[in-house]
Design brief:
Helix content is 25%, strand content 14%. By secondary structure, it is an alpha+beta fold. It is elongated. It starts with 12 loop residues before the first helix and ends in a 6-residue tail after the last helix.
């Protein structure tokens, strides 16, 4: 929900009784606020009729945007809400637990099988701790420092089970003698050392002829700076991936 500088509408008596507060979006071990069970707003017709209530107006708008209401609906549509917990993690300071809640709004019965729930999250800047809450996205840039915190969190919290190479569980064991990766510092291909940490790009080649490593050119591709020399021939997807890999503090792609 976007912020507004306009004076807000008041809440109706039904919405006041729901007692939706900022604190219920965050789960604190020191002060665990209970936010469980379903909340009932009434039928959709009732919600839409309460035009002076800011929350009812918002809910009605969201339902209309996500799944336009059909006039021939056979039975009254009930507007329901419930708190759903997420954000499981473990740290030195806090025990294993969910750390945040979303307020989910949905219809009963659903309009159709594809109707999504409306999920509301607290903005990180409004939360006592920013992890797992929503954030405003700047469309023209990526917050690479934030991505690095996600990576560091994975390395710190997920443990050896997450870090174990998937090839260890294959039977028979996968034995590939030479896997090459892009060294984004030296801008060339290198043989990947065992246990090397690297970034993986998932993409498809497409049908357009493009630069590839072959038996004939592999020696040239392993020369430092070669990919910089061939930048105009390197697909933009790969160039962008090289840039991102370097910005998040990783060396190999």
């Amino acid at each position: 929900m976007s912020r507004s500088t306009e004076s807000p509408k008041p809440l109706c008596e039904t919405c006041k009784s729901l007692n939706i507060t900022v604190e219920k979006f965050a789960i604190s071990p020191e002060d665990p606020t209970q936010a469980i069970g379903q909340l009932h707003l009434g039928t959709l017709d009732e919600v839409r009729s309460r035009t002076e209530c800011v929350w009812c107006s918002f809910v009605a708008e969201q339902f209309q945007a996500s799944s336009p209401i059909r006039k021939e609906q056979a039975q009254p549509i009930r507007c329901q809400m419930e708190w759903r917990e997420y954000g499981w993690y473990q740290s030195d300071r806090l025990p294993v637990a969910d750390r945040a809640r979303q307020l989910c709004i949905f219809a009963e019965p659903r309009f159709d099988e594809t109707t999504p729930d409306i999920q509301l999250s607290l903005l990180a800047e409004d939360a006592p701790e920013p992890e797992f809450h929503g954030r405003l996205i700047q469309r023209d840039q990526i917050d690479f420092d934030l991505v690095k915190t996600w990576l560091n969190g994975c390395l710190s919290w997920h443990g050896a089970e997450c870090e174990k190479p998937v090839t260890e569980d294959l039977s028979p064991p996968l034995n590939i003698p030479d896997i090459r990766v892009i060294d984004v510092e030296r801008m060339c291909l290198v043989k990947m050392a065992k246990g090397c940490q690297y970034v993986t790009l998932s993409y498809v080649w497409g049908s357009t002829p493009t630069l590839m490593a072959t038996k004939e050119n592999i020696t040239q591709m392993e020369k430092p700076g070669k990919l910089r020399e061939l930048a105009s021939e390197v697909p933009k997807t790969i160039r962008d991936a090289i840039h991102v890999t370097a910005k998040i503090g990783q060396r190999f792609l």
